[in-house]
Design goal:
Length: 192
C-alpha cells in the first residue's frame, strides 16, 4: 500500500508543478515597462552613473532579414522587441571585454497575435567562464540556458548568433524559404 501512496503523491506534485509553471510563464511585461538590470548589492554604484539602457531604447545594431508573409499565412520570423543583460550595460559593455559572463534576455513578439515571450542565454568569454567557474563552491557549473561563447565583448556578434538561430528555427522544413514569401497579403490562397 505504501508504494501506491508515494506514486500518487509524485503524480499530483508533478501536475501541480505543470499548472503553476503554465500560469506564471504566460505573464510577460510590456518591454517599455521592464526595469533595466541593476548592479548586484556587492557591486559599487557610481554617483554620476547614467540610467542603464535596454535594447528597446537603442537602434538594433545588426541587419535583420525583413519579415515576410509565407503562403501558409505565417511569417518567417517574430519581431525583436527588447533585449538586455543581467548586469552588463549594453552601451559601456563589461569592465573586462575579454573576461565576462552574464545572462542575456531577449524578447520576441508575433504582432499579429500579440504573443510575446522571452529567451535567455548565458553569454561569456572563455576567460569569463573560467572566472565564473572558479567562483563556484562546488567547482562545477550547470548552465540553465543556451550558452553563447564570444572571444571578446561584441554585442553585434551575440545578436547575430541569436538572429541566425531564430531564422533557422523559423525556416520551413523541406522547402526553399525564399520561394514561399508573399509580398502582397491579398495573394494568400483561400483555405478550404
Amino acid at each position: 500500500m505504501e508504494p501506491v501512496k508515494v506514486a500518487l503523491f509524485i503524480a499530483f506534485f508533478g501536475i501541480f508543478l505543470i499548472i503553476v509553471r503554465t500560469l506564471f510563464t504566460n505573464q510577460r511585461p510590456d518591454p517599455r515597462n521592464i526595469i533595466p538590470p541593476q548592479p548586484y548589492p556587492d557591486e559599487p554604484k557610481e554617483e554620476n552613473q547614467e540610467p542603464v539602457l535596454t535594447g528597446y531604447d537603442m537602434p538594433f545594431p545588426i541587419a535583420v532579414p525583413p519579415r515576410a508573409l509565407r503562403e501558409d499565412g505565417t511569417y518567417n520570423r517574430p519581431e525583436i522587441k527588447n533585449y538586455f543583460f543581467g548586469r552588463i550595460d549594453l552601451v559601456r559593455g563589461p569592465e573586462d571585454p575579454k573576461a565576462f559572463c552574464d545572462e542575456f534576455t531577449i524578447q520576441f513578439e508575433i504582432p499579429e497575435t500579440s504573443q510575446k515571450w522571452f529567451a535567455q542565454y548565458t553569454v561569456a568569454t572563455p576567460a569569463g567562464l573560467e572566472k565564473f567557474l572558479n567562483s563556484q563552491k562546488s567547482g562545477a557549473v550547470m548552465m540553465e540556458h543556451t550558452v553563447i561563447i564570444v572571444p571578446k565583448w561584441d554585442l553585434a556578434a551575440v545578436l547575430q548568433a541569436i538572429v541566425d538561430a531564430m531564422m533557422e528555427s523559423w525556416a520551413l522544413p523541406d522547402s526553399e524559404e525564399t520561394e514561399n514569401f508573399i509580398d502582397d497579403p491579398s495573394q494568400i490562397p483561400e483555405r478550404r
